[in-house]
Amino acid sequence: MKTFTFLLLILFLNTGYAQSEKITIKTDHLEEANYLKMDDFYLTHYLYIDLFLRENLFPAATPEEVSSILTALKTYVSIDNNLDIEIEKPGENNYLIRFAILKKEDGTELLVAFTNWTARDKKFEKEIKISNDSYTRWYFLNGDKMTYRKDMSSENDYLSMNKSDLANAFLFDELADNDSEVRSSIEEYLKQDGLSVADQIMANLILLKYQIFQKEDLDTQIEYLENLFEKNKSNSNLRGLQAAFTATKFQIKLGK
């Protein structure tokens, strides 16, 4: 395993990123594979939420730190080449992530992130141990789409969903053909009477995600959501949605 801080630093400076002193990126091969072809929207959405926010793994990560990891991931990970990430965690074992591409016998390809975090003991082990207790995330790769296993169309009953949930399912499933129905589903949902503030915010967050995916101008939608939260700031039931909005704005920074 080779640590190539200098070469990666050149790469990140050329692409507008800089490697953090807290993060070490390692690989066995320096050749750029450019293997991962999925849209950056899915990469920034899933991996930021799953590998930094969930389980409180590294919530203090800056956009530059997350971007450096995602850039290395897209550049160097292939079926033949893994990528190891080590993130300094003062006072405890460092946070370790190993990215790998696995190809099943039926041709299905998966991006897998193995970590040294144990869900049972809620701690970082000294090394990555692949077991039922280790925190692992895996995603199906299908052209421009990257889909978490629970977001696959086979896991959803689309006929039973309201239009807001349906739009969310369309956006994150593995089927490209239904992406064009996301906006119309949200618009139809928002025309209903009797929606709660939480319902309105949730639908508009999905619309914002879709606009990120479509690479549209986001300023109007962000301002609209900020005003909704401000008008309802005394509502404690919106804290979870506020956190989701904050995470989405972080995702937008990653895409710049």
Structural description of this entry:
The protein is of the alpha+beta class and 256 residues long. The protein has two domains: 149 residues, no CATH class; 102 residues. 40% of the residues lie in helices and 18% in strands. Strands 1, 2, 3, 4, 5, 6, 7 and 8 form an eight-stranded antiparallel sheet that branches. A hairpin with a 2-residue loop joins strand 7 and strand 8. Helix 4 runs antiparallel to helix 5. The longest helix has 17 residues. It is globular and about 55 Å long. It starts with a strand and ends with a helix.
Span between termini: 31 Å
Global morphology: globular
> Number of helix segments?
8
Strand content: 15-25%
Largest sheet: 8 strands, antiparallel
Q: In total, how many domains does the architecture comprise?
A: 2
- Can you write the helix and strand succession as a string? EHEHHEEEEEEHHHHH
- Uncertain spans, ≥5 residues at pLDDT below 50? 1-19
Radius of gyration: 19 Å
Mean pLDDT: 88
Structural class: alpha+beta
Total beta-strand segments: 8
In short:
Helices cover 40% and strands 18% of the residues. It is α+β, with helices and mostly antiparallel strands. It folds into 2 domains: 149 residues, no CATH class; 102 residues.
Protein topology:
Layout: E1 2-3, H1 5-14, E2 23-27, H2 40-53, H3 63-76, E3 83-87, E4 95-103, E5 109-118, E6 123-124, E7 134-142, E8 145-148, H4 163-172, H5 182-190, H6 197-213, H7 219-231, H8 239-254
Antiparallel strand pairs: 1-2, 2-3, 3-4, 4-5, 5-6, 5-7, 7-8
